[in-house]
Amino acid sequence: MTNAPWLTPNEENYMKAFTVAKAHRDETPVPTAEDEAKLAIDIFETPNEIVVQAPIAGVRPEHLDISLSHDMLTIRGKRMELSEAGRSYLCRECHWGSFSRSVILPISVSFERSRATFEQGVLTVHMPKLNRGPSIPIDSSPTHDSTAGPT
Predict the structure, then answer these.
(1) 121: alpha, beta or left, given left = phi > 0 and alpha = psi -120 to 50?
(2) Model pTM above 0.70
(3) Per-10-residue mean pLDDT for the chain, 151 residues long?
(4) How far is 66 from 75, CA to CA, in rounded Å?
């Protein structure tokens, strides 16, 4: 199927493609404000921290909730749409309403020293890595309880 909005009226199949695209659009449910979108994120690490970036243009900082619990980062927010009254969409790809994303971090981070910045529509969360020593093996051999009777 040809995507009609990118065709020009001079192209041969313009009207046919536009009619097919309009029929498809009319059958496709439009997301409602109650639907929650999955926030797209990038995660990278430096020698000293884990960094998460998320493009979330159109969101006010007071509509963001960022939390760090154990080793899971959760970002929730809401992108407010102006007014829908009288609009007849030809194409609708932007999500308006609630969104969230939770991600388990690959390494322990410092809750106290983590910080977030929000500039030019991009949220950046910096989480300093915790320097933990090597893991300690735990003995899993059976134990004998002297208070228990014979088995």
Answers:
(1) left
(2) no
(3) 44 55 52 68 94 91 90 90 76 83 91 93 94 72 65 55
(4) 5
